[in-house]
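Project standup — Tuesday

K.O.: blocked on the structure for the chain from last sprint. Re-posting the sequence here as requested.
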Amino acid sequence: MALTHNDRSTSAKRKSIDPRRFPVANTRNIGIMAHIDAGKTTITERILYYTGRVHRMGIVDDGTTTMDWMVQEQERGITITAAATACRWQDHRINIIDTPGHIDFTVEVERSLRVLDGAVAVFCAVGGVEPQSETVWRQADKYQIPRIALINKMDRTGADFFRTVEMMVERLGARAIPIQLPIGSAERFNGVVDLITRKGLTWNEASLGAVVDETAIPEAMAEIVEDYRGQMLEAIAEWDNELLIKYLDGVELSEAEIKSGLRKAALNGHVVPVLCGAALRNRGIQPLLDAITDYLPSPVDVPPMIGFHPQTHTEEIRSASDDEPFAALAFKIMTDEHVGKLTFLRVYSGVLTKGAAVYNSTRQKHERVGRLMQMHANKREERHAVYAGDIAAVIGLKDISTGDTICVQDSPITFESIVFPSPVMSIAIEPQTQSDVDKMNLALSKLAEEDPTFKIHQDSETGQTLLSGMGELHLEIIVDRLIREFNVSANIGQPQVAYRETIRRHAMAEGRFVRQSGGRGQYGHVVLEIYPIAKGSGYEFVDEIKGGDIPKDYIPAIDKGIQEAMNVGIVCGYPIVDVGVRLYDGSYHAVDSSELAFSIAASIAFKDAMKQAQPILLEPIMDVEVIVPDSYLGKVMGDLNARRAQILRTDTQSKSHIQLIQAYCPLAEMFGYVKTLRSLTQGRATYSMEFSHYSDVPQSIVQEILSSKRVS
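H.V.: unblocked you, prediction finished:
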């Protein structure tokens, strides 16, 4: 029996998608997530083709895919920014966000998962569970996102479905339950066996995979099919008492009962259904679409969104219903050269119409919606309304940032915002001509608005403009966009590490600021103690002034003066972190005291106390994971040790000659590491890294940093 993708899709001809053709229970908001080069964008491209959303499949290597629309993405063959689209499948509307796989663009994964209901985790059948796979899996764990998994690239030499499933269990702690088994692997990969229906599925190459043929299970696979089918049924029965009784009594479960039980277990996060395929050869996509609709949640399957009233701070709840007051979360800002600022929204409740007045409860600002758009990568389709469960874009909102809540004025609510990692690497940038200054400042502000992990600041000592980001590739893309999109000519300096300073012990100091120059003078006097606080705490201020020694009106100015002083440390001039301040004495003058005087006095006292508190320099430490063949392990370990790395563990990946090295390594030692690693291993090793923590800088390195700052 042959099925075509047109048989399964509701329509392949009509491109636009009316969101209310389907009830909210038939909506799926999903993300495609994986390690870099696992095939996410190729899978998304095939999904769009088989659902009739596009009429030609693009190829990543040719730069012709729909979702990788940026010039930089097409040139490099990687996804840089999360792209949204929507399609139809079996009377369901599927909103899809294709996310990047590179750790430098983890912000795109983070904010996408924050607003999605389910996810498809893609694994390479050759590489298995790779480093960034673990990162995105942990991000999905944080938001309790139900997942299904697709083991892709089954047609590649070295593909091993069963090893990858084992790695999911061992490295991710997932209850990975195959619902398909591959028929062959590598060049002999011909199709899959559906364990639920006990049928084989193959794809007709002449139809570009649009025709799916149902076949008998190969005789050689009969035993393993029954074994894995039994494991699947056991896993399902564990979470459904009714099915458990039937299973133990030997009653054959129907296809509908198996799917119902599997859906229940998947939605609760108890199991992860695992499928397989080869997207580049157009195999395995239609069953994946079926699994998305069968086993991933709709907006009504997930718990209602909990927020708080912005004025009373009482708890507020919004369910996925058009009848509830409108509430949405802004999860992405994008600048479009034709329409200006685009704000991507996830609508959690209610209906938003074009031209409606809305309330930004995070910023307590009133706004008006200009136009509503359904996004298809970088293309837009006009909409007159968006509904509960929708993901759409809004034109016309001016004062809004990623993580803001948009709602109606008479039923305000504020949702928890999105927390992003801090940037760990900086480069200096300088416009080449005076005419580039204004262009550069405008361009940087737009880029920073789009990307919360990209920061701009001025070095108070050198006057340099510093761009901070998540890694070399992140900053490289930012600079490339400055040149191409905004036509800015600029000189770029070497990457700089975002060092920090802190203290080792308690210290007390007194600060006095007195000026008398005729008329009213200035008088401020404070006595304070500073002390170390827990790593990552940042700063705390304790007011212990008693008896009115310093009027309460001046306390905020003292706090402000201390925080301003913390911006420039006394070791190397880097910001100070993890310091507590106790203000316990001081004095004031009834006429001459002012907020400015107390702010300056507090700054003087804090700097004096810092000198006595054994200040130290901190450097960012990265969590580095290197995947390397056995034969190169010694070379790579030796190079990491030379980079002051602390080796945490080495693991042999099961049934392979591949080693995983996990280490902590200072960011300052990791610049250019990718070139070294490729040279040492003939291009066969890969690595990923993400910020872990700050740690003390060895004294010998402190002297080098001091010397380099003096030279610069």
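K.O.: great, moving the ticket to review. The longest helix spans residues 595-612. The mean pLDDT is 85.
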